[in-house]
Amino acid sequence: MAGDNPGSAVPGVTITQFVENIPKGCSTPDFVRKPITLTLQEGKNAIFRAVVKGEPKPEVLWKRNKKEIVDPQKYQISFSPGTDEFILQINKITADDADLYQCTAVNEYGEATCAAGLKIIQGRLVNQATDLKKEIQEFRKILKKTTPAPTPKKEVDMEQVWQLLLNADRKDYEKICMKYGIVDFRGMLRRLQEMKKESEDKQAQYVYNLTNLRHVRINEDKRSASFNLEMELKNPESRLYLYKDGRMINFGFDSDNVKHCLRQVGKKYNFIINDLQPEDAGVYQIKIEDVDIFSTELEAESIPVSFRYPLGEVRCHEQGNAVFQCTLFDPNFNAVWIHKDRQLEPSDKYEISVSNDGLSHRLVVRNAQPSDKGTYTIDLGTRSSSAWLEVERDKDDDLSSLGKDGQYRSGQDANRDGMAGSVGTGGLGGVGELYGKDGMAAGVGVEPHCRFNQGLFDVHALKGKSAILSCSLNNDLVEGIWFKDGFKITDLDGISVEKEGPVHRLVIDNVQDSHAGKYKFEAKGICTEASIFVKDPPNLDSALLEKLKKEPIVVKAGKNAMVKIPFEGRKPIRATWLKDDGELQDDARINTDCSDSFTRLSLSSTSRKDCGDYKVKLKNESGTAEAAFKLIVIDKPQPPMGPVEVVDSSTSGITIRWKPPKDDGGKPVQSYIIERQQVGRKTWVTLGETSGSSTVFTTNKVEHDKSYYFKIRAVNAEGTSEALESDAVMAATKVFPGPPAPPKIVSASKEVISLSWAAPHKTGNSRILGYRVEKCKKGSNSWTPVTDVPITERKYKVTDLKEGLLYEFRVAAINSAGVGEASAPSEAVFARDPMKPPDIVRDLKVVSTDYGSISLSWMKPESEEDRPVKGYIIEMRHCDILKWTQCNTLPIAATSYIVRGLKAREMYFLRVRAMNDGGLGNPVELDTCIKAAPPTVYPKVLVKDNVKSFMVVKAGNTIRVHIPFQASPTPEVHWLKNGLPLPAKATTTTRECLSQLIIPRAEFTDSGHYAIVLQTESGQKETFNVPESPGPIQLVEKVPDTVTLIWEPSPSEMRGSTLNYMVMRRDSYKGSWEVVADLIYTNKCTVANFMPGREYFFRVLAKNCMGISEPSETVQPWIIYRKKGKYEVRIPKFKGIDHSQPPRFLVALKPHVVTLGFDCHMSCAVTGYPAPQVTWYKDGKNISHDPTFFCKNDFGICSLVILGVTESDGGEYMVKAVNELGQAASKAVVTIKGKAFP
């Protein structure tokens, strides 16, 4: 049954609770930020965003009121981890998408729902006047179709983004990361720290200090932007470069007539971007040489409204209509038209209109007169555009070419259907198309005979080569004007202008850096623009490259080598030296440097390791070039390669063999010199030489049973190598070789078993000629050779096997003396196909975790009988690392393992794989990463018997309070006195889930209410103290002869503490309080069993594990009135009876087992006449008058009440009844036990 629906702090959110009681730490869903109603233009994308909360984390669902959300292309639902936003995006909205959209967050305890609307604005041009001519109406239709396409989004190099983050303020990190798709915020911070150190080291090469970095901002005039910094250069001649979006741009100095300008005052550098346009948005970088100094971004949104297509010059015939048209980048509905310092208002003379999107603005001057000519300006507040209107008088010979509205036409019959033609084709009164073929504004109302057949295109020209800009008009009689960077081209060096019919060309014979810029060709009010980009890549002398390619550089070992490569090209040019495709790094012996005209590599004290293929790569913004060469360092050869092999040894001679040197020093080996020394002597004797192609030498200058050492040296043109020395070789009779190591099993199948072995340590006194391999069935001593001829290699594949048998193998070496001793047998191996790897393990789970280890367990694979498991391998990896690491070096047989040596609170992935003779099985990985930390235990105080909620301490004594608790991880423990920090003399200690409060030499001022607060790592606090008293009590009689108590909850319960209530009552007759209800978890209780006519008082107490609160009592008594009936007394007639009798117990006392701290009620029934006198005893001591015990005798029902029993209350209790006729007694034992709950 659902509980009461809680309210939300966010207006418009409805929360429904599914269950009555929600567990501690859990909650129903709610909205932190709900989606808002949107009003958007048709064709845009609508995005609803919502942020929700709840435990467990709720699932978010989106619904639509009228239709279902089923099209994944139309409706895109996603979640942004960086902002915790649930997003519904509706692409390219139409009028049908106007609806109410519902967002619902659901978990197992409830749901939260809210709604947001979507309103659609259908875009169309405004028709204000109804008396315009048909041509103007048609023009509007064309204008509607020619809305400029949105500017394509720029692609920014991520390296520029990292440089931007490196120089950005920390408060802007999130915005930049969201803009460029960086989601690993922690990884971003680590990388920035590494980049910062590296950047500071590089900047230190050129700059003493760098301060006051101010990012780009729009200036007050709204026409320019600037950014600045302060730096002190180590070398004032260091070159400074400006880049935009990774591309170097030119800038001027102290001039407002250039696009980009630098103003320097002392150490302050101020960069200015003039005539702001939307294309100026991007990432700007300042570099000194090739080192990044500062990066900043000019955002397109911050650039003021500007013109995509400004006003163009208009020529109109007298009494015709002149039309001015312009298009903006951003909407503006407050534009003002001005002519002759006078603001124009809509009238019969002037028609002013603006499109619904605020981008297209239009002024029509009707019935133009010569007095109307002049400059017309549209003022946007921050920017303006002006154009000239020229009104020409009528001429008789031109009447045939005029339209009805007085503007130029090519003939009335050009477009009789009234549809718009191209510029100059008639049919629209000279209005024509909005834009030329090159995309530039053609100028509405221009002379219709002039248009572009082909516009200008950007040209990328190499420095020193030629470049041509060319465009074509439809009229070969029209002259034009060329502009560069807004200035008319008159006498610019190296530029010539050509005209060939309708084709206009601008020719640059020898392109230089000064020719780079934006060029414009303008004719009859129309224009086309393009840019020339000058590329000057690094250039190397072709003759030098050819020489380096053909002739290697040769240098002797120990000498210095220096290679200098001259080059030309645009600065800066970066040079990178490589050796064998690996970049060279400067050290004590290697030095690379680069200047404006050359780069140089210097190697000091060269050696053979410096030989190789070298390459230098030159790079600038225009391109790359490279030069390659080979460096040869010649030296004496290395020693011949050993070991020296004894081919033959006998009493008549010794034959030895060696291998050529690994490195011949760059020159061929000419010969080998062989020396001999008899063991025990100091002199070496030269035996002779061999040619460079022979590595075998035989000497007969030996004596019987004498041992000798041999040295071999290699000789080339540069010198003699160090010597290769042999072991002692004895000239004696032939000796058999020693046993090799046992052979190893490489692989096994039912047909072939592959073996391998190592050579014996003792080869005898001659070289090994081969090996003999023998096989034997396991358990048999019959060894059989596998082949009749010696095996020259140290491996062999044994065939002729019987499937299923168990084999052993051994090997013996053979030299000139014969077959040596056989090796020990190999491991036994079955002649059968390899076993398949085992299946995956089952039921992999985490048993326990702590700060340094994670304990795992699993079950064996299902198919263990077919593919028996020999062991298990456990692997782990950190959540930030992709490589798996093996935890156990050897396979384990057990199905449990403890992964140790982990970092506390770090996250790890774990997996287990089984293995057998067939190899490793597939791994089984835990579903989620595991945190190296003990399981979370919510803080809880463990109140034991020795913990009291109330203490009385004598002044001068020490206050000691021990509070045990449980929590994981270990919380922070704070003690409070009356809600405030403890006094200075109080000390607290906490260890092993036990906190202790010590106050030495207690004083009266130390009295108060002490509380303990446990704070978890997440910041949650749990306060443990005696609860506060409940609120006022209200008494209601809902059922006759009963009363229902309703009270306000304790403030401690309202703060989230878990507690219960106890209800007590007292009547005016008895005077003592008795418990009528306990362990009440609500704030109401119904009490019955009242005696009519008596007054009753009630009290309610709150209880928790720390103790009982002060009571909350009723003020007015509760009385049940009952009408008295009429009684008649009838005296019966009876005979007198003697009632005298000695005391006798009708109901004896019974043993009691009472929990510590609870009340004990003992009772019995006694009779006798006269009424006996009752006395209570404990362990023989009279307690009838002890104020700590409550004794009463109601008509023979004797009761004893012990309030709040302690351990001292246990023992033997006796009640004795005495009258004049005798006495009687009853005994019982009271046992005290510990509390049943903490």
TrEMBL record:
One of its GO terms (biological process) is cell adhesion. Residues 639-736, 739-838, 840-935, 1029-1123 form the Fibronectin type-III domain. Residues 29-119, 304-377, 448-533, 939-1010, 1143-1231 form the Ig-like domain. The keyword Nucleotide-binding does not apply. InterPro entries: FN3_dom, FN3_sf, Ig-like_dom, Ig-like_dom_sf, Ig-like_fold, Ig_I-set, Ig_sub, Ig_sub2. Residues 397-422 are annotated as: Disordered. Keywords: Cell adhesion, Immunoglobulin domain, Muscle protein, Repeat, Thick filament. GO terms for cellular component: myosin filament. This is Immunoglobulin-like and fibronectin type III domain-containing protein 1. It comes from Salvator merianae (Argentine black and white tegu).
